[in-house]
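Dissemination and training. As part of the outreach component of the grant, students in the summer workshop were shown how a complex can be specified as a set of sequence lines and then modelled as a single object. The example used during the hands-on session is reproduced here so that future cohorts can follow it. Participants entered these lines:
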Amino acid sequence: MSNGNAGGSLRRFYVVFAVVAAVGLGAVGYSVLGKARGSAVSVPVDLAGAVDGQELFEMAVPVTIGDEDAPATIIVFADYLCNHCSIFALQIKPLVEETFVATGQARLVYYDWPLNPTLGSFLAARAARCAGDQGQFWEYHKVLMRNQLTWGRLEDKIPTFEDYAEDLGIDRGEFRGCLNSDRHAQEITANMQLAQNLRLGGTPTILIGTGDGQSRRLPDYSFQTIQAVMEEILGG
Amino acid sequence: MNDGPGLQEFHPPLNRMLVAILALLGLLVALYMSAYAAGLTGPVLCNVGNCEAVQSSPYSRVAGIPVAYFGAVGYSILLAVSLLGLQPGRRDSTVIPLALFWGGFVGVAFSAYLTYLEAFVIHAWCQWCVSSAVITVLAFLASIPELKRMGGPS
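and obtained this result:
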């Protein structure tokens, strides 16, 4: 290559570089500022074709607390617009956590089951997951359960969900961006589908799994029932 | 017009041009995914694979920081080094070959780990993550001629 060609090749490189940079930054900018900004997904989404049991189980993503090697797993399926789920979340879950999770006897596994997705419980489940992205799932979960009679009646729930997030110290902008998208829609849909495939009756449904892969569905969600089954499992 | 004494004596290495273009492409991908992670975009554009499953998984963050941010920083460094390596007087630098080669190697190792997670842990693919992995491998391959320059001026 001659010296003149060397300078020319560098110039051509900079032209190509500038074109790629301009086109790429334009595309990224459009996705941020333009119509790519979507609306909040508030209903279940298509799980992309037929999903078999194993595949669905892998797509369903619960939120968990406790030791993964705990001898028992307390599995909860709940809906943010269900009154009994609120009672479980605010009164029973703290007891379960204190008695079984904190002591390493059980792991708590939470699956969303929005029974009234079009009334806002699907959006609420997504909001809780968006809060979870910033490490505040359980705090937000509690706020939603405590205030379900307030936000449940609102036509536009998003500003209130954002207020709840801000009150917890969550970054409002990031939370809003998450909510105004389809993020977490698939895993929540898979959680719902899993509950339906398991033919669970309603919310809240509590199952207790043991290490051998078996699980027992509880007849109610009272702490006494959970305690009795746990004692049976741990004692046996 | 005179190109100046430095440019006239300098033959810009083609492989560094290629690394620069690849690093730019990788940076654009990482910027888009960072914008998505920061909640600045709507639903992620995903024609191939299941980007939402990957981006929603716990593995999309390291110590609470979105993986895309690490990508943006890594590609920015690679881009800066490769552009620096194209400047007259920098051809015989011993630092630039080291930075390009080992930077590319670290990028490939990190991409391999993320690809492993997609294939065997998350069981879902994200077209942007795969694109980034391919870009990283190509940039690393393009940095292999730097091995000859590590010893200093030839």
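Residues 1-7 of chain B have pLDDT under 50 and may be disordered. Students were then asked to discuss how this feature might be tested experimentally.
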